Amino acid sequence: MDIFQHTIRKSVSFAGVGLHSGNPVHLYIKPAAPDSGICFVRTDLDSRVTIPASLHRISDTRLATTLSSEDIQVGTTEHLLAALIGMGVDNAVVELDSDEVPIMDGSAGPFAHLLKKVERQQQKSKRVMLKVTKEISVKNGTSEVRILPYDGMKVTCNIDFDHDMIQKQSLSLEITPESFFQEIASARTFGFLHEVEYMRQNGKALGGSLDNAVVVDQDGVLNVEGLRFSDEFVRHKILDLIGDLALLGCPVLGHVIASKAGHTQHFQLMKAIVGNPDCWQFVNLTHNGNESTLEKMVSSTREVRNKIKPFLLPPQLAPFNRASCSI
Ligand SMILES: [Zn+2]
Question: What are the start-end ranges of the E strands in 53-119?
Answer without folding.
Answer: 58-60, 66-69, 72-74, 92-96
